[in-house]
Amino acid sequence: MAKILHIETATPTCSVALSYGRELVSFKESHIDKSHASLLTVFIDDLFKETGISATELDAVSVSMGPGSYTGLRIGVSVAKGLAYGLGIPMLAVSTLKAMALGFLKRLEVEKNGDHTFLLCPMIDARRMEVYLAMYDSKLETVQDVSALIVDKNSFLKELKNRKLHFFGSGAQKCESVINHKNAFFNHDYLNSSKDLIPLAYNQFKRKEFVDTAYFEPYYLKDFIATTPKNKILGSI
What CATH architecture applies to the domain 97-186? Predict the structure, then answer.
């Protein structure tokens, strides 16, 4: 079975995991914002030391591909590329939102409550009232493709009419203030984790769904907009 290193940096979470087949071997993560640059490579090195697994034993590297934080995605994908290229192993790109849906689905314990009629809506915070989102059913089949949406009181009325809709992720909290419906459920505890990449990445590995390491770019969804700090003093270099 394949040994795969998984990298999740699409949100404030900085998370890495090692898996053998579908099984988690070990993981490390931090939920401190803007910690990716300082912690990611340290976490990877720590995992190799703690598990006794060498980087040369890896069969692939998987990375959360976005959408999400521009800076976080750049850091995660750059490290994944460096490892894949340096080790001569394939690289896997996993949808951030689908991995979130899978992780949240496990927490719902679907088999236990027997309710399969709900929809899952992972959300990542964007600017102002905008979120990045997708929608999946209880079998992780796509109901709505990845998109950027400015949320208002009329959002999701069609989906909420006959089914429960679970909102979760960093964008869910802002939506709770404008969506008021008996079928809308908001979770405040979900945090992204590299552990949730494992099943999806392993399936892609078996199907040999690799990306071109040299040319792959994160799925930003929107162009990055740089901002200039206010009160910047010019001409004083």
Answer: 2-Layer Sandwich (3.30)
